[in-house]
Amino acid sequence: MINIVILGGGNVAYHLTNALLQNNAVNVVQVYNRNLENIKCFKKSTLVTDNLSKLKEADIYILAVSDNAIAQLSSTLNLKNKLVVHTSGSMAMDELKSISNKGVFYMLQTFSKERKIDFSSVPVCIEAETEKDLMLLETLATSISKNCYLINSNQRKSLHVAAVFVNNFVNHLYHIGNEICEENNVPFEILLPLIQETANKITTLTPFKAQTGPAIRNDTKTIEKHKAILTKNQQEIYTLLTKSICNTYEEKL
Amino acid sequence: MINIVILGGGNVAYHLTNALLQNNAVNVVQVYNRNLENIKCFKKSTLVTDNLSKLKEADIYILAVSDNAIAQLSSTLNLKNKLVVHTSGSMAMDELKSISNKGVFYMLQTFSKERKIDFSSVPVCIEAETEKDLMLLETLATSISKNCYLINSNQRKSLHVAAVFVNNFVNHLYHIGNEICEENNVPFEILLPLIQETANKITTLTPFKAQTGPAIRNDTKTIEKHKAILTKNQQEIYTLLTKSICNTYEEKL
């Protein structure tokens, strides 16, 4: 049984705590947050505290806090011979300033309080200083997910950037699609099957091979017609992405 | 029973012919293409021809050809009192130059020969000149899909642009994500659950509400760190989309 203390009150902390409370291989000893309001929902299932000097004994302390809080919070922890990990995609392991052993437990998923997450398919990227700690993190990771990866700080940094493209930026393109629909009185729901198929397609084809549309065909007639009905901001994005697609296939085909 | 002739040998013609051949409400009388090679696979199931003067009698002639071929091909058809439709998202109905009745049968999906399509969820956007033809197209549409929409040429044009954003451009962002992974020796498959969840999330939240990431938080520290490891082209796209996200939420929050 792995004993765990979770520190944080945001979306990642919330979903992770929920998942670990339901996990028989793990004992959530305590949840800490600087204000109790965000974690009071766990009161019935475990100990909660807003006092760092009252942290309980555990094997792993998981800092599921914002990037900017990692250095400061970890520096105040006086936990010798314990493993302290953060959950950030963009921060290196040595951002942790505790005297403890260090590690990373990065769950590559988008977390919103409103959406329930199936952890079994969430990739967990782990990193640690020692083989022993790595094995401990692997045991924890595989107890909640079937996808566990050993990823060092540099690799994780690039994964995090790639995630911004395929998640944050993709969602913004969905938003622009929605905007265009609203401006023209077309229900956005018509696009949902296409959005699904676009995401499914790349499980069997590379994105390079899955590309379709006027840009890859260099269909300048359609491209000009499209631009004519867009707002300035939409036009700018349309032009840049079209250029990027053209360049990609010009070079490589 | 609706009698149909399909004209075309591309991806849309291929998938539509396959779907209609399996459909009991429809009789595929004939498939035409200017070269027989692309349609010889249908030889066992229906008549095939490369001779326009030998088109059979039917209720609907579906031109599933490239945008640029619609005007020319339709102008050579001598089909009085028949319904001739095209399947293009970006072309107006009056792009059809036949003496026949005109209509549009636009299936909003991305078609690749390698991927089997479940037509039952493909949205079909129909348009026609007369109420009678509209009903005929509606009967055809609902026989293959549960999603049929009446969409005029202007609405369809904007839908088509929106589809470029949520499909073609989104796929290109997947490609860039893949590129970043390859450059840094990280398996792209780690990103697939995130990609899926991003597409699923907007079935219950608007894309506006689903947005996360450094841009919406205006987290300039992370943004600068990200840019530092990108190529020039990737940087340009990162900068523009980040700016667009910032502007979207500055104005509206």
Give an account of the 3D structure.
The structure is a homodimer of 253-residue chains. Chain A is 42% helix and 15% strand. Chain A is of the alpha/beta class and 253 residues long. Chain A has an 8-stranded mixed beta sheet with strand order 3-2-1-4-5-6-7-8. In chain A, helix 1 links the parallel strand 1 (2-7) and strand 2. The longest helix of chain A is centred in the middle third of the chain and has 31 residues, at 153-183. The radius of gyration of chain A is 22 Å and the shape is elongated. The mean pLDDT of chain A is 94.
- Roughly how much helix do the residues of chain A carry, as a percent range? 40-55%
* Radius of gyration of chain A (Å): 22 Å
User: Which structural class should the secondary elements of chain A be placed in?
Assistant: alpha/beta
**DSSP strand tally of chain A:** 8
Shape of chain A: elongated
| H/E series of chain A | EHEEEHEEEHEHHHHH
Give the N-to-C terminal Cα separation of chain A: 54 Å
Major β-sheet strand ordering of chain A:
3-2-1-4-5-6-7-8
Number of helical regions of chain A? 8
Largest sheet of chain A: 8 strands, mixed
**Mean pLDDT figure of chain A:** 94
Low-confidence regions of chain A: none
The oligomeric state is homodimer
Largest interface: A-B, 93 and 93 residues
Which percent band covers the strand fraction of chain A? Answer: 15-25%
